[in-house]
């Protein structure tokens, strides 16, 4: 791979960067002004590596005449202009499967954290309030709650398997009902119906034009004042201003959020709310998974260079 010019868009992972540097001709996009870089090196870039937040948009793809492959360090490829890649014959890969367990673990962790108020209880102890004020307030049980999943794919199924162990009935919505595969899960043809029949709503579908703001005001109101929204998909799946208003008014009970519409900017109002648990897009953020994701990116680039079948092709 020594001759492969790879443009890394963002320092996504130290091990990946080190291996790209060792095995390829690596360009770090953040090290020089964009125009200056493109003037000097655009023709040498054959591969782009980005992640969930830094992808190859139409402008970047147009600026790279020798681009052959975009290898994303993420399962979601909503930041990659897939139509443009298809048009130019540019291959696209992602990192599915290897992050499924971690993202599902986090979804369940967030649901429990919101209902049992784990971060708030932790702050209570740290602030010395246990001693001065006495026992902490009662919280709400997670076991047995009806869990609705938007997108029963790899991550959605992993969430379902986990919550089954908590005796939670599983509901789901996606474009296709899978009655024969999941006879014990209840399908709802609309997200509003799913939310009306769930206590916890988990977003686990890809982001595209049809899923942007799939969690609308109407959906949040259907979930209701005791309902909890868990987003481990993408920020724009949820109408964020509507969510903030619904949480503030008590029309939505709580939220556990790993993703936001304009990362790393989080709506100021959420920071003061006691019914939300906020984490900084860390769904796949374990040593184990990030290493596996990096190896998958490297494996895809290597397969491409050797003209072998790509390991996880999207385009
Ligand atoms: O709709 P279907 O039957 O193709 O099911 C897929 C579902 N899905 C949708 N659900 C509701 N409305 C839609 N317009 C829609 N489009 C797709 O999402 C499928 O069950 C699920 C996606 O599953 P996988 O492709 O296996 O993706 P994975 O690995 O679970 O990751 C899901 C997303 C990523 O794209 C990232 O944005 C995020 O989770 O981390």
Low-confidence stretches: none
Topology pattern, helix = H, strand = E:
EHEHEHEHEHHHEHEEHEHEHEHEH
Mean pLDDT comes to 98
Bound ligand species: ligand A2R
Q: Quick one: CATH superfamily of the largest domain?
A: NAD(P)-binding Rossmann-like Domain
Which strand order do you get reading across the main beta sheet? 8-7-6-9-10-11-12
By CATH, the architecture of the largest domain is named 3-Layer(aba) Sandwich
According to DSSP, the number of beta strands is 12
Q: Sheet with the most strands?
A: 7 strands, parallel
**Total DSSP helices:** 13
CATH topology type of the largest domain: Rossmann fold
3D shape = globular
Structural class: alpha/beta
Q: What is the number of independent domains?
A: 2
Distance between the termini: 21 Å
Radius of gyration: 21 Å
Estimated helix fraction: 25-40%
Can you offer a commentary on this structure?
With about 325 residues, the chain is α/β, with parallel strands linked by helices. The chain has two domains: about 5-95 and about 285-305, Rossmann fold; about 100-280, NAD(P)-binding Rossmann-like Domain (Rossmann fold, 3-Layer(aba) Sandwich), CATH 3.40.50.720. It has 13 helices and twelve strands. The strands form two sheets. Strands 8-7-6-9-10-11-12 form a seven-stranded parallel sheet. α5 packs across α8. The longest helix is centred in the C-terminal third of the chain and has 19 residues, at about 285-305. The protein is globular. About 45% of the residues are buried. The protein binds ligand A2R. Ligand A2R binds near residues 103, 151, 156 and 207.
């Amino acid at each position: 791979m020594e001759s492969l010019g790879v443009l890394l868009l963002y320092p996504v992972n130290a091990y990946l960067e080190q291996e790209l540097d060792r095995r390829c001709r690596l360009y770090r996009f953040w090290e020089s002004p964009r125009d200056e870089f493109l003037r000097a090196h655009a023709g040498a870039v054959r591969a782009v590596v980005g992640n969930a937040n830094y992808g190859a948009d139409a402008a970047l793809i147009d600026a790279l005449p020798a681009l052959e492959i975009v290898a994303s360090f993420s399962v979601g490829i909503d930041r990659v202009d897939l139509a443009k890649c298809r048009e130019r014959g540019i291959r696209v890969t992602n990192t599915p499967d290897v992050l499924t367990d971690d993202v599902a673990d986090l979804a369940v962790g967030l649901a429990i954290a919101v209902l049992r108020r784990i971060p708030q209880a932790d702050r209570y102890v740290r602030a010395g309030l246990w001693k001065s004020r006495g026992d902490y307030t009662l919280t709400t049980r997670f076991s047995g709650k009806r869990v609705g999943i938007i997108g029963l794919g790899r991550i959605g199924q992993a969430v379902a398997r986990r919550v089954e162990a908590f005796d939670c009935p599983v509901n789901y919505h996606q474009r296709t009902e899978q009655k024969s595969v999941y006879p014990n899960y209840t399908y709802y043809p609309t997200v509003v119906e799913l939310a009306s029949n769930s206590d916890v709503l988990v977003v686990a579908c890809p982001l595209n034009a049809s899923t942007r703001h799939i969690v609308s005001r109407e959906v949040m109101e259907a979930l209701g004042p005791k309902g909890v929204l868990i987003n481990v998909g993408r920020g724009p799946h949820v109408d964020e201003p509507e969510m903030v208003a619904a949480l503030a008014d008590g029309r939505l009970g709580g939220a556990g959020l790993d993703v936001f519409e304009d990362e790393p900017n989080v709506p100021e109002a959420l920071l003061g709310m006691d019914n939300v648990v906020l984490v900084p897009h860390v769904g796949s953020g374990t040593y184990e998974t990030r290493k596996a994701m990096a190896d998958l990116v490297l494996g895809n680039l290597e397969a491409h260079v050797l003209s072998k079948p790509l390991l996880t092709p999207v385009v």
